[in-house]
Amino acid sequence: MQAMIIEKYGKHPLKLADIPMPAVGDHDVLAEIHAASINPLDLLVRDGKVRVLMKNDMPHVLGYDFSGIVIQVGRKVTKFNIGDEIYGRPSKGGAFAEYISVHENDIAQKPKNLSFAEAASIPLVGLTSYQVLHERLKLSAGQKVLIQAGSGGVGTFAIQLAKAMGLYVATTTSEAGAKLVESLGADQIINYKTEQFDTLLQDYDSVFDTKGGETLEKAFKIVRKQGQIVSVVGPPNARFGEEERAGFVKTNLFRLIARKITKLEKKHNVKYSFLFMKPNGRQLEILSQWIESGKIKPVIDRTFPFEEAQKAMEYSESGRAKGKLILKIK
């Protein structure tokens, strides 16, 4: 089969290659991929920046969400049949290819009202948003959350999910993204190019950080005492290492690299945590219900043919995308 691969870490162009068909385990399904999407995670993996969290053999096929049709099922698979239209977030990547083998627990039936391209835009950003807002922050109707980078892939989904949960949502974006985030339901829109969110907001229950760095550090100023900040790009801390049972060495490494954030956490009496999203087919089923009811819709910036995967990666890296970038594979 054909796939877009990387052969080593670094900012090297993707390479189109013929590789063997993936093996199908007892609990796996083999799917013909119709569409995949580009995510910042693809860039991080390509550059080797998440090796402490993800181990990949080379050559490696990028792609961390997809949609397609089941063409084979493992002998112990109980949830899916040949011909099912599915979508999912494969734990080991592999979606920039014609076929993928994926565990049945990592996928769900594709929402009936979405095309394959639209469905492929959902899993990674949908699961990230759900796990941050619903599971980690455990927010309830009426509470206030700042979602950074509201016009990005995660932001466009997170705003809609937050509004479906009854939350008050502030978000940051540029002037070009303001109309988009307003249409998604954002209650307060901050132009990050001309305004400082940390001087405009106060007493927020939580922050959903997708930027890291100085932006993450400023977030501590706007959260109420005993509020929470969850980052999907900031440094993992010792708490994350302990939760993931990462071992003594890694946990202490996380403690070291997060020491500045830990000081801010104690100074402001705010809980900080790092979240590395995990595949979850059951949660995708919940998201499908919201999507089929019309409460959440996909936001797609641009669609690329499979052979232009490298061009799609470059566009993603530019930071100009408003919503998701799709690779149409079949």
From TrEMBL:
Residues 10-327 form the Enoyl reductase (ER) domain. It comes from the Bacteria. InterPro entries: ADH-like_N, ER, GroES-like_sf, NAD(P)-bd_dom_sf, Quin_OxRdtase/zeta-crystal_CS, YIM1/Zinc_Alcohol_DH_Fams. Transmembrane segments: none annotated. PROSITE patterns: QOR_ZETA_CRYSTAL. Keywords: Oxidoreductase. It holds the Pfam family ADH_N. This is NADP-dependent oxidoreductase.
